Amino acid sequence: MSILEKEVRYCKGVGVTKARDFARLGVETLKDALFDFPFRHDDLSNRIEISNIKSGEKVTVRGTIALITNRRSKNNNRMIVTEAIVEDGSGSVKAIWFHQGFLTKVLKNGSVVSLSGKVDDKYGLFLVNPMYEVIGNGNITKHTGRIVPIYSLTGGLTQKVRRSVAESSLEGVYEVKDWLPGGILKDEHFVSLHTALSNIHFPNKMEEYEVALERLKFNEFFLHQILHGKARRELKQKVASKIPFSETKVKEAIAGLPFKLTNAQKKALWAVVKDMERTEPMNRLLEGDVGTGKTIVAALAAINATASGWQSAILAPTEILADQHAMSLNKMFAGQLTIAVFTRTKRRVGEREVTKKQMLDALANGKIDLVIGTHALLSDNVLFNRLGLIVVDEQHRFGVKQRQALKDRQGDEDGIPHLLSMTATPIPRSLALVLYGDLDRSLLDEYPEGRQTIDTFIVTRSQEEKYYQKMRDQIDAGQQVFVVCPLIEESDALGVQSVTEVYNNFVQGPFAAYNIGVLHGKLKAEEKNKIMAQFVACELDMLISTTVIEVGVDIPNATVMFIEGAERFGLAQLHQLRGRVGRGECKSFCFLHLSGDISDLAKQRLQAVVNSQNGFDLADKDLKLRGPGNIFGTDQSGFEAFKLGSYADIDLISKACDYAKDYLDEDPDLDAWPALKERVLEYIDEIHFE
Ligand code: ADP
Ligand code: MG
């Protein structure tokens, strides 16, 4: 019986309710738990004798409980205070817990315990809210006296339960096949996969953790490089639809635009239509900061395709964005293109709502020239008449498999569609070369004329009233305000707490008179859509959300972006958030609100955002100021959502890249390394089902 296939709900201390919380974190089986890594570790290994503890230190002591009692707090009658005296032969110390009355049931007189926590000296030396663990006869501790893993939690989950599930999962670590070719293992002196998995959770020393991390990151990069290298090689052998450049039609469309294209847009469009003329499938990345006008380039490429009878599809990351793209493009090109939107909940051709069947028929008959949709477009029953061009907007995991999933009714004679990917995530050049290899790239390094700069201010705690007033002024003038909150608590992965906190402050204080909507990860999709729709319709003055929530929509009426705890975000991310405003005619503002005193370095970083309006520059600055570790911030998963690796690991990435190339050169089918081959196939499925 496989250990790793066991469902976590059968683990000790889990049960149905906690299993539901686990499921929200994507952990259903022990295998999931094994691969759900801690996001940091706390070093509680400073174990000392009680007689040696000093105020202010974080320590672990081990001793016997001599006394434990509950009482009510003198200041707050509703709060239970638990006090215990612990002795270890060298001396004794008091430990105090708040709101944990149950502890007298868990820790009894005479229990041998290990306690980790901070030493305070307000009333003589004592430990404040220490982590506790009862030590039986054995000597091994899991939660104290060692380096302990800290995991993302949600709902009623605790680190203790999460750790015990991790521990159970490690019992099955030997079921995991180490698929990395032995040659690489040997040459790079990597630890085995089993050791790595064990030490990524429970290292005895931080060095063990580092080594494990290196190995697991390499796994990610190598697999990624193999997959993409393989895909590129396969793609090169495929034949694509040859779509001639319909110069007159494209020029007409450009002439009909309400604005002049930037030179960068013209250049990019030119490159795209040239690519489309060839039978080698286009694989081009269109990069450009927020607001540089990528969508128009894609739409003009679609016009070019339509001119010779080809259909195009744009894949957007969310339903709201798909809908917005469709509406704005429909306004511009209604006479020239039949544009449809197709998501789980929205189906329109032009401005007409249609049934699913009508939509599928229209796609299959070729009545629709350009369809804009979400992943719903990739489902099996969607067939095109002649699909010539796929555009992927800010969706990084789109690959060969998805390209194949978009099916053409004509079958193979038409060849495979050309692919244009678009992104606003700035990636340093050096890195892009390694990551994309021979992918063609176009950069929109120019902003449309008349684009306004967004006045950006750093707001300290003492200044906030002044800026709240500015926000009220904007709302009173009919504008709208975005408020974005950082995820602070690890237990608040869905952002409920941080958003609620700000909301409560605002409705009870500075914004009591206004309509405020909140968005967080716990809301259902329909609720989110409803609130977004209300904001779009101007029924809400203010929208408070985390970044986890898609604020990528175009709300020209919003003129203020207020970022709470701004020092917690990456610069590129701050810039992208700022790009949500300044989309209309009106002067727009970005307020970077600090959550407290911050370091000079942090101030310098934020000052860079105040001074520069260019996301690619800011990414470079962040690289210089903070070192490579932090370019993309933590909750901006970047281009390929590596679990552990980041673009900062450029050396490891290029190493993985070189190895992947060598291995593919030697045997493109990977038959020489069956375990690797199997892992690659599995990986393709994992990506496909995301
Ligand atoms: P992004 O690159 O962030 O996806 P969009 O394509 O959404 O940018 O364009 C942002 C806005 O700028 C849209 O309202 C679009 O119509 C407008 N726009 C695009 N190109 C130009 C241009 N050359 N001149 C003026 N406005 C433009
Ligand atoms: Mg865009």
TrEMBL record:
Transmembrane residue ranges? none
What one GO molecular function would you report for this record? Answer: hydrolase activity
Which GO biological process entries does UniProt record here?
A: DNA repair
Q: Where is the Helicase ATP-binding domain?
A: 275-444
Q: Which residues form the Helicase C-terminal domain?
A: 463-624
Keyword tags: ATP-binding, DNA damage, DNA repair, DNA-binding, Helicase, Hydrolase, Nucleotide-binding
Q: Which Gene3D superfamilies match?
A: Nucleic acid-binding proteins (2.40.50.140), P-loop containing nucleotide triphosphate hydrolases (3.40.50.300)
What NCBIfam families does the record point to?
PRK10917.1-3 (NF008165), PRK10917.2-2 (NF008168)
Could you identify this protein by its name?
Probable DNA 3'-5' helicase RecG
Q: Which organism is it from?
A: Candidatus Uhrbacteria bacterium CG_4_9_14_0_2_um_filter_41_50
Classification lineage: Bacteria, Candidatus Uhriibacteriota
